[in-house]
Amino acid sequence: LGLTAALAYAFYTVFGKFLLEKRRLNVESLTLYSIVYAGLSLPLIQILLASLQPVKDMEAWLALTGLALVPTLLGFALYISGLKRIEAGRAGIVGAIEIASALILAFIILGERLDPVQWLGALMVLCGVTIVQKP
Questions:
Q1: What is the pLDDT of residues 68-96, one digit of tens each?
Q2: Domain shared by 74 and 109, yes or no
Q3: This prediction's pTM
Q4: 74-110: string of b/e by CB count within 10 Å (b at 16+)?
Q5: Which site in 3, 32, 74, 120 is 20 to 30 Å from 65, CA atoms measured?
Q6: Together in a domain, 25 and 53
Q7: pLDDT by residue (tens digit) across 6-25?
Q8: Domain total for the chain?
Q9: What are φ and ψ of residue 35, in 5° steps?
Q10: Do 18 and 80 lie in a common domain?
């Protein structure tokens, strides 16, 4: 499952860059297509994995809608905007910071307790990204 996610992320980055440059697709259109595709394919994947859980609570629907509109839509749009300005390889490398920054922000904002191995993992990701970025 992790390898599939990595391949999908790589495909999204490279193909997104291709659509932005060669097909002259604008950021807004690519973001819209990405969100619609993800929104349609995710329930199908959940059905295939037999893990689809119906949401019956209105409060949960509001939370899901908020998560879909704010961080997801904003994240897609900002990533694609950045992809338009830098090469796909560099965007993928910088994208690796997402996991480490989420871990550190969870510690700072939410007061999450992190094990030493989690701190080590975040440090390794940040060091790796720093090393790769040097000319």
A1: 888 889 988 999 999 999 889 888 888 88
A2: no
A3: 0.73
A4: eebbebbeebbeeebeebbbebebeebeebbeeeeee
A5: 3
A6: yes
A7: 898 899 999 999 999 999 99
A8: 2
A9: -65, -45
A10: yes
